Amino acid sequence: MQTLNALSRRAFLNAATTVAAATALTSAKAKGDASNRAIRIGMVGVGSRGTHLLQTMLSFPGVQVPAVCDIVPERAARAQDLVEKATGTRPEAYTKDQRDWQRLVERDDLDAVLTATPWEWHTPIMVAAMKAGKYAGTEVPAAVTVEECWDLVRTSEQTGMPCMMLENVCYFQEVLTLLRMVREGVFGDLLHAEVGYQHDCRFLMFTDDGKLTWRGEHGAVKDGNLYPTHPIGPVAQWMNINRGDRFTRISSVSTKSTGLKNYAAQKFGPDHPLAKRDYALGDVNTSVLQTENGLTVTLYFDLCTPRPYDLILRLQGTKGIHMGGAQGDIYLEGTSPKAHTYEPFAPYMEKYSHPLWTALQEQAKEHGGHGGSDYVTMYEFLKAIRNRTPFPQDVYDAATWSVITPLSFESVANSGAVVDFPDFTQGKWKERKPVPVYGA
Ligand SMILES: NC(=O)c1ccc[n+]([C@@H]2O[C@H](COP(=O)([O-])OP(=O)(O)OC[C@H]3O[C@@H](n4cnc5c(N)ncnc54)[C@H](O)[C@@H]3O)[C@@H](O)[C@H]2O)c1
Q: Ligand 1 centroid to 226 CA: how many Å?
């Protein structure tokens, strides 16, 4: 086991014993003692992200990984080595074929299954895990079709097993600070957000030997927002989506597609087949979302243009506005020193530091990528499993945030036609309580 400092260990073990009492799980059927028990996780998909998640997971005390799965045996072996080094026990590897994870989820020595495979496997693996009585976790997005979203919701409701999409942007320091400020009324009534997944990921679309990667395969044939959950997760929590409000409609349009083709020409030369073929994915996709309570969101998806990373994180209410960016700016009427003028957001990060971030930041910065948010996300995932409590991001969130992809395809294909959101909560959004601000 890797060395942990006292803060993290204390925080994690405290959570194990106190949160159980505070938030007893009423729906999960899993049995077991809530505290002082090892958590046993089966890991499916140990490529780039899965390996990172595994390393983050292994930095927590009391985590065991009895089984790993990947269709590439060398990657599974690398994961076996990592687990053995950290815990002293070598996990069993499942590498036979694309569905070997089915044997993994049937094991009787797992509390949870976590997947970081390509997108199309997330729902089948989580559904199988929940049916086998395990907590289920997935990388983003949780699902790729409307039907898969419903499948997740129905399976979780029928089995009583929680499932979580580990949306790590919800645990960015800036995002958590804003959540606290929203809860304390600093922005007044929320009106609008403008966010985007704007990240030059062209390098992830092609292999070095001249093929499309699994991401590139999606971009070749689909036009819309392929990756909505990073920016929409924070917005959904600020706006109480599925918890007092809900997304009702979306309209989505795309620019023409140039990025993939141009990049293929740069990388492989203009005569390469990948530089000559056409691609469906528009370079910049823009969606507008409406909520039942009269709020709006502008959501960008921009993966294939040369540009710096930017989530935007504009959040606007009746009392003021936050703009993200490198440092972040804010303007609050009656509070900011100069009328009509932004001031730096940094002091507000101190003043309104979210207690979860305050408690975990030291360890988070040491062990977690994405500014430490990966550590906080994993903390939340493991805490719920250990205490047999519901996940803080639940199946309704996973479905609602992921469904934007297929809804955007439909809207783009129909010239931006307005498409209705399914209500995955089936009316429960009216009664469900907002995500609270809580510590470790
Ligand atoms: N939250 C984040 O910040 C973040 C960052 C990167 C990636 N991701 C997500 O993580 C997931 C994985 O992305 P990646 O970049 O690691 O991709 P990757 O291609 O590096 O890894 C995917 C792994 O899954 C394995 N795999 C494929 N099909 C499988 C199957 N049927 N059974 C078992 N294993 C299988 C592959 O062999 C590979 O090792 C994606 O959903 C992606 O969107 C999230």
A: 15
Question: Which of 106, 134, 167 is the endpoint of a domain?
Answer: 167
Ligand 1 atom at minimum distance from 117 CA: 24
**Alpha carbon separation from 162 to 25, 180, 283, 396 (Å, rounded):** 10, 25, 36, 10
Q: What is the pTM of this model?
A: 0.92
Q: What is the residue with the minimal CA distance to atom 33 of ligand 1? A: 70
Q: Which two tokens stand for residue 11?
A: 């925080």
| DSSP label of 133 | T
Q: Which residue in 280, 227, 282 sits closest to 255, CA to CA? A: 282
Render each residue's pLDDT in the chain as its tens digit; 440 residues: 233 333 343 444 444 433 332 233 223 333 333 345 789 999 999 999 999 999 999 999 999 999 999 999 999 999 999 999 999 999 999 999 999 999 999 999 999 999 999 999 999 999 999 999 999 999 999 999 999 999 999 999 999 999 999 999 999 999 999 999 999 999 999 999 999 999 999 999 999 999 999 999 999 999 999 999 999 999 999 999 999 999 999 999 999 999 999 999 999 999 999 999 999 999 999 999 999 999 999 999 999 999 999 999 999 999 999 998 766 799 999 999 999 999 999 999 999 999 999 999 999 988 878 999 999 999 999 999 999 999 999 999 999 999 999 999 999 999 999 999 999 999 999 999 999 999 99
Residue to substitute in 54, 55, 117 for testing ligand 1 pocket (most ligand atoms within 8 angstroms of CB): 117
Counting the structural domains of the chain, the total is 2
Largest Cα span, the chain: 65
In angstroms, the CA 383 to CA 15 distance is 7
User: What is the DSSP code (8-state) at residue 6?
Assistant: H
Q: Residue 369 falls within a domain, yes or no? A: no
**CATH number of the domain enclosing 120:** 3.40.50.720
